[in-house]
Design a protein that fits this description.
Low-confidence stretches: none
Oligomer: single chain
Number of strands: 8
Strand content: 25-35%
Strand order of the largest sheet: 1-2-3-4
Order of helices and strands: EHHEEEEEEEH
Mean pLDDT: 89
Number of helices: 3
Shape: elongated
Helix content: 25-40%
């Protein structure tokens, strides 16, 4: 059995919620600018708001990186192409089920707490993974490539549905 290694980068689609958030931040910053012209010391709040805007705008630019090595899957969240945070890790031994989203085998797991590591774009092949971690079942939604699915199938053939 050979080693299986693959990396995959998924860019998160900008949603309406993030666009509304950006517009609200810009309008709030403009309001503090106008107030700063009339009321002393409010211009300091305006300068702080510019810093907050820059920080939050960068935090809204999200990518997910899937790293699969011999039965271990790590998911990292990359914000603004500069900050990385590990958001999920698992071993295939913790896998209960891996199936395409909407598959009938997933019906018994509908009420589980879920984590979404997908791009959010229509037409992408989204898989749902049921994982038992620390005695708690979780549903993980992600967009694995064929190498990841085949690798998991090789380690746990009865738990992977194509």
């Amino acid at each position: 059995m050979g080693d299986i290694y693959t990396e995959q980068l998924i860019k998160r689609k900008k949603t309406n919620k993030t666009m509304i958030g950006k517009i609200a931040l810009i309008l709030l910053t403009i309001a503090f600018f106008v107030l700063g012209m009339m009321i002393p010391f409010v211009e300091l709040v305006f300068l702080v708001m510019i810093g907050v805007d820059i920080y939050l705008f960068r935090s809204m630019d999200i990518e997910y990186e899937y790293l699969y090595i011999n039965g271990n899957l790590d998911v990292d969240k990359i914000m603004s192409k500069s900050r990385r945070k590990k958001v999920f890790e698992m071993n295939v031994s913790e896998l209960e089920l891996l199936a395409p989203s909407g598959c009938p085998e997933l019906r018994p797991f509908q009420g589980l707490k879920s984590m979404d590591f997908t791009s959010g774009e229509e037409g992408r092949s989204v898989y749902e993974m049921i994982v038992l971690k620390n005695g708690e079942k979780k549903k993980i939604m992600f967009e694995p490539n064929d190498t990841i699915v085949d690798g998991m199938r090789m380690y746990a053939p009865r738990k992977v549905v194509r």
